[in-house]
Design brief:
Sigma factors are initiation factors that promote the attachment of RNA polymerase to specific initiation sites and are then released. This protein has 243 residues and is mainly alpha-helical. It is built from twelve helices and no strands. The longest helix has 47 residues. The two termini are 34 Å apart.
Length: 243
């Protein structure tokens, strides 16, 4: 992705700032020389080779055409533009054989494919994080109904696996018992009187693990929260979860 300074220069150049454009062109002269030399398979000199001038013109075009909001580096985009313009020029001058030009074209196709694949990966990654953020916002709202702060989950999570497994058993017991579930949703409290003997846990243990149990129950009963189960470790093969 563009650095803040480079992004600012491209934006300014696109708005007509000649100084910003000159800075970009000057800064990328070595970049243009390297790309053009690689395409031509030989060293090129600014004072002798027209190919470099073609590359610099192509870079100027790339500045105008580049989308500053794109999740792709400017140099990646510019490299493709420079290569394509240079190949068109070489074809018109008939300086290279068709075999060489086809090799150049294959290089560009490979570069574009890699760039497109990377862009798609970034897009999917962004969508994943956006969806996860929305899901966590929804989960936070559900927890708030039970006076639970989502930012405190790591603090209320039991340190020992045996304790986590026991509290998961309590959460699963509530999920599977309609009466207990209705009680929890109606009053916002654990049905300790019936839950304690059902899962063989003391009142003290259940009260101490109240928030953790409820946080688990919400994930177990709400289909929208099902994706959060992938972030958890279930202690049984029927359903395994741990926050």
């Amino acid at each position: 992705m563009l650095t803040h300074k480079a992004r600012h220069l491209v934006m300014q150049a696109q708005k007509g700032n000649g100084n910003a454009r000159e800075q970009l062109l000057e800064k990328h002269r070595n970049f243009v020389a390297k790309v053009c030399s690689n395409v031509c398979y030989k060293h090129l000199a600014w004072e002798n080779d027209e190919e470099l001038s073609i590359g610099l013109v192509a870079l100027n075009e790339a500045i105008d055409a580049f989308d500053v909001k794109a999740k792709v580096q400017f140099t990646t985009f510019a490299r493709t533009v420079v290569k394509r313009r240079l190949i068109d020029y070489l074809r018109s001058q008939a300086k290279y054989t068709n075999e060489q030009l086809n090799t150049f074209r294959d290089d560009i196709d490979e570069l574009e494919a890699a760039s497109n694949a990377r862009s798609q990966d970034i897009y999917r990654e962004d969508r994943y994080h956006e969806n996860l953020a929305e899901l966590m916002e929804y989960y936070a709202a559900k927890l708030y109904e039970f006076d639970i702060d989502i930012n405190q989950l790591h603090k209320i999570s039991p340190k020992h696996k045996d304790t986590r497994d026991s509290l998961f058993k309590a959460a699963l017991t509530i999920k599977q018992d309609k009466t207990m579930m209705q009680y929890l949703l109606r009053y916002g409290h654990l049905p300790i009187k019936s839950l304690s003997p059902a899962c063989n846990l003391s009142r003290k243990v259940l009260e101490k693990g109240r928030k953790y149990i409820i946080a688990l129950v919400l994930i177990l009963i709400d289909p929208r929260l099902a994706p959060l189960q992938s972030f958890t470790t279930y202690p049984t093969h029927e359903e395994r979860i741990s926050i």
